[in-house]
Amino acid sequence: VAEFDLINQYFKPPCSARNDVLLGIGDDCALLSVPPDKALAVSTDTLISGVHFPHGTMPEDIGYKALAVNLSDLAAMGAEPAWASLAISLPTADKRWVEQFMQGFNPLAAQYNLVLVGGDTTQGVLSITVNIYGFVNEKKALKRSNASAGDLIFITGTLGDAGAGLDAVLNAERYNIPVDDTLRHCINRLNRPEPRIRAGLLLTQLSQIAAIDISDGLLVDLKHICEASQTGAIIHLDKIPLSDTLAGHYQKRPGGQQPDWQAITCAGDDYELCFSCPEYQVDEMNKVFEAQDISLTQIGKMTSSNKIECFDKAGIRQNLPLTGYTHFTHEKQ
Amino acid sequence: VAEFDLINQYFKPPCSARNDVLLGIGDDCALLSVPPDKALAVSTDTLISGVHFPHGTMPEDIGYKALAVNLSDLAAMGAEPAWASLAISLPTADKRWVEQFMQGFNPLAAQYNLVLVGGDTTQGVLSITVNIYGFVNEKKALKRSNASAGDLIFITGTLGDAGAGLDAVLNAERYNIPVDDTLRHCINRLNRPEPRIRAGLLLTQLSQIAAIDISDGLLVDLKHICEASQTGAIIHLDKIPLSDTLAGHYQKRPGGQQPDWQAITCAGDDYELCFSCPEYQVDEMNKVFEAQDISLTQIGKMTSSNKIECFDKAGIRQNLPLTGYTHFTHEKQ
């Protein structure tokens, strides 16, 4: 369909090119140059309307998030972003939609000096597949298999906001609940997650770091590290850092001062990094992160068991499901 | 949705790994090693049911074709295949479908020593996005901008079968026409195009070759070369090679012995290469291709005009549309 070809004009890089793009959009393939001392890190993520983001999400937010979640995969490997390609399917050849989508995508790409090297628009149900490319020294990569029993477990930033934001969107839709500042903060974290590229790059300065980005939920994602490293883990729930907004939200709730740990540990979409660090490096790491003003919190420890155990403030073991809130249906799994 | 995770097991490479896959499926990113003297060639193609292949196409055929059309993009650049990643969206977590899909995908991957380095299955309308990676010496790449006025225009193989196959599928559906051996041959070319990887690699031994794969139609694809090279072209329709099957089909038609040039030059999906070659290299090229038993036919010449002109056997100019049969709707564009 010819109009879809016209749309491809929106994929031409808006600003700076990169020297390592030898041939960009407009031929059968892009031709790219990878630094000889680096491995190429690649990842693919598909976002489908109604599955990975609620129907009705603004095109700018979709454009931002489609790139952010892919950048987050590079961050979790400690890779430096370089290029991306973008396959969009759209019900109709809606130029305005693509323009708005790129208004979310382009500034984030520019922030990380990332160049779009391929784009394809086809007619279909709204869905976006981004392929992302970065560079990392293979020996320094933050592989999931790098953890050992005794390593300490950390997360960047705070957890739970995006999950609360999703609840807010779905509840506002269902029960016609007004969206206040608290919920607006949470919805913003759902739609505009910050990929932890800087944190990932800093971690490659250390050794034997195993990392993952929290896209599906802390526990289910941590489980991937445990499986790859053949370790278990202990998590201290009360150490999990919450944003002031979310902590305030839980304090105001009738009855309970206690946060909803299940919602927090099983909610995805925060895109913080969860990683393990051998104890001897922790002081060094904290110094580096403090200097860069990136918040880190120790929340647990890798063990030699084969399970993930969660304890509350009183030291009582809590049975929380090791599943994630992976899809935007109205039912949690 | 948890069942979709289970499906990802089908993406583990069935056979030989490659030394340049430093870390395969199962982490946040794959880690890959590109030869230091080569450029990385990448391309993305999305196939949507009812748009890029008729509804009802067998999963094996979809699996084959999804990879073949991407390999074809590497062929058109003269690149050697290395890796692919695969994003599938499926209405339901249908393991049998994915298994059959991979039965079409895997043998073709093995044939080209290609390894799957990323896979993602999500819930949605049936659609497949393949990202493909290969290597090419940048100076030898078959860029669309390499053509000059006076270069001769060639195609590999024969044209028109896939287009006739598509007509057959759609007509059989609409008018309940029985599928005979002729149509079966054409449908097979529609579903199982042979990517011209070997031809592309041979062409990189020559200089200043501009190539494209015929996915949308000879004329519309040739136009991309002309635009990138700022040339025009003359095509001699009677030189366009047809398969014996298709030639026989036209001879049997009531009234006309003349092939339907519009159908042949505007039909896509044959995935033959169309390329230009400077005249001084043609003898050398013919020898190389003959030795490798790959059929080549000269069908025209690049000109310094800004148009593509087609002439029939009698030397009469034919006005054929420079558009392609790009989508599987029942109407041609």
Structure description:
2 copies of one chain form a homodimer. With 333 residues, chain A is of the alpha+beta class. Chain A has 10 helices and 13 strands. Chain A has helices at residues 2-7, 59-77, 95-111, 161-175, 181-191, 197-203, 218-229, 244-252, 261-266, 282-291, and strands at 21-23, 30-32, 39-48, 80-90, 115-123, 127-136, 152-156, 210-213, 232-236, 273-277, 296-303, 308-311, 317-318. In chain A, strands 8-10-7-11-9-12-13 form a 7-stranded mixed beta sheet, with helices on both faces. In chain A, helix 4 (161-175) crosses helix 5. The model of chain A is unreliable at 326-333 (pLDDT under 50). Chains A and B meet through strand 2, strand 3, helix 2, strand 4 and strand 5 of A and strand 2, strand 3, strand 4, strand 5 and strand 6 of B.
List the helices and strands and how they pair.
The structure is a homodimer of 333-residue chains.
Chain A: H1 2-7, E1 21-23, E2 30-32, E3 39-48, H2 59-77, E4 80-90, H3 95-111, E5 115-123, E6 127-136, E7 152-156, H4 161-175, H5 181-191, H6 197-203, E8 210-213, H7 218-229, E9 232-236, H8 244-252, H9 261-266, E10 273-277, H10 282-291, E11 296-303, E12 308-311, E13 317-318
Parallel strand pairs in A: 4-5, 9-12
Antiparallel strand pairs in A: 1-2, 3-6, 4-6, 7-10, 7-11, 8-10, 9-11, 12-13
Helix pairs in contact in A: 2-3, 2-6, 4-5
